[in-house]
Amino acid sequence: MKKQTIDTRPAGPKPWNDPRVRSLFFQAIAIAFVFWGGWVLVDNTLSNMESRGISTGFGFLNETAGFGIIMNLVPYDATMSYGRTFWVGLTNTLLVSAMGVVAATILGFIIGVARLSSNWLVAKMALVYIEVIRNIPLLLQIFFWYFAVLSNLPSPRQSVDVGGALFLNNRGLYLPEPLTQEGFGIVWGGILLAIAAVVGIRIWAKKRQLATGQIFPTFKVGVAILVVVPLVSYLVAGSPIEWDIPALKGFNFGGGITIIPELAALWIALSLYTASFIAEIVRSGILSVSKGQTEASKALGLPNGLTLRLVVIPQAMRVIIPPLTSQYLNLVKNSSLATAIGYPDLVAVFMGTTLNQTGQAVEVVAITMAVYLTISLLISLFMNIYNRAVAIKER
Amino acid sequence: MRKTKSIALGIALAVGTFSASGAMAATTLENVKEKGHLQCGVTSGLPGFSQPDEKGNWTGIDVDTCRAVAAAIFGDAKAVEFTPLTAKERFTALQSGEIDMLSRNTTWTLTRDASLGLNFAGVNYYDGQGFLINKGIGVDDATQLDGATICIQAGTTTELNASDYFRAKGMDFKPIVFDTSEQTVQGFAAGRCDVLTSDRSQLAALRSKLADPSSAKILPNTISKEPLGPVVRQGDDQWFNIVKWVLSVQINAEELGVTSANADAMLKSDNPNIQRLLGTDGDMGAKLGLPDDFGYQAIKLVGNYGEMYDRNVGPDTPLGLDRGINALWTDGGVLYAPPVR
Predict the structure, then answer these.
(1) Of A41, A147, A361, the CB nearest to B92
(2) How far apart are CA A245 and CA A250, in angstroms?
């Protein structure tokens, strides 16, 4: 095709008059400018730092950190390296983000549907929730949940005691920790068996429905199997779990699992705030499905629940997914506000204490930005894959 | 907010050299003179050290350290603008040239002196880390703090000292790290932690911020050395000398009995030490690139070290701190300034 153009025009335009050559030329210049700009920034930063006597490089990651962190999902103590503080911060960020995404999605869907309810009170309550929560700055909400709730909880010695196993005070929520004993492998076997059985039943039920039209109650049977089989194997193995129950020692409770108030406050605030946006997205998604679809489904005799599940939601998802992705990204990025209430997330630990103790601002900020970028791109990637799966398939 | 600030400073560092050739040629002193004021980094509010009042006037011993430098340069103690900084922002602000000097109860350590491109220009307060605890808990000594939850301000040497102390004693603690000292006090007041740890002078200041200051007490233990002082950028020795010697002049003035009240009378003094200090003899100022009466101006307009101390943190202030080791060497303290000659 291109060759033909040239062939049919032996006396073609001069190169500087040829639009293709010209556009290539300007694109090359643009790229050269971008690279030159990038190089100037990096080079300037390095030479500036050198001339000011600021040490550079990533060697600091292997130095001993020497400070404590209240919550760590990966093993950590003060004798470990600055590099390890990065992983502690990162896992804490991922934890609160994942918890927030799950809670915000569930809450957002419920409120979004409630907003469209034919029940006047329910619809108005959802409306008030959305308008109040999404119009108050997130930082204020985090402070509210932290200080308002914290100051109303009792001190460790006056803890709220639930059955002598669960304690609530202003240092956090203390839960018994299950410690698996010898023989727990049998229980794992039971769990795997149950999952395999449920998958098998689902495949069989679908086949049968396609062949005969008969519907099998997969959901109810599946739940029953998932509960009964592991329970039986647990009893057969002789109850191989011991509970580490928290107990008051000196200043605080020791043992068990602790959910620190910083995590709770941040999680609640992030979930409630993002849920208000997700609710509006869900509402717009549902409203985008034309009324005819619902009416047609009703005419076919599908009950309300099935109409919603099989007809409305799948079509609404196509509208919901792209903006929902943005909300997930916002939630992850907003989790960096953790630093305001002392939750040890990536920004608080790594870009806070580590940056300050080492003074390697440029390196630490670059790493932190790269991490947030990576997390965000990964979320986008997975949501795009899911989006392609639910998108309209043109045949 | 802080994140944006760090990034902005990073960009400043990156783009800075476009004007670098010009900036490098001009010394900090020339820049300050051209601006007509000194840009000084302080805390966002710590009673006794640097705090704005309701009219926006800054007071405190760190503030006076800056004012003395301004007085020495311009003969005007008000030719200072203050930049409030959190502990985390302070070094980047100085490195990137946003401020001319940092006077923000900053501890002098080897790492900071050697790897941040900064120089500590002396000590204006000798401090040490201590613990503030709720009286109701019934602990009298830091060795009884095993298992305690401790509120700490982020980005301070305090974080490392607390960790070192507990590790050395084989004790355990849970750190709750807040961004600003304000939030740290709030966390302590809300009962999130049993103990608040910081420099002892700060503990006195923070305690005075509690709704009921008598409900908390400071434990007798001092677990670290915290020499606090003004900091300047590395690479401008003239400016380093100016900040160092203005502070030294203030300490020498106290030793020689020169105060803001008697500075004018002292101009007629026959004591050659006082004559050199106030600039009536010799060319001490010229050696630093300052007017010869720089010492007179600093003392007249701000005061000697003792006045600065008594006015801001001394026994008659809400902080009520005794001179302790911050007394002159002649009075049993460690303040010992090199001679002006």
Answers:
(1) A361
(2) 16
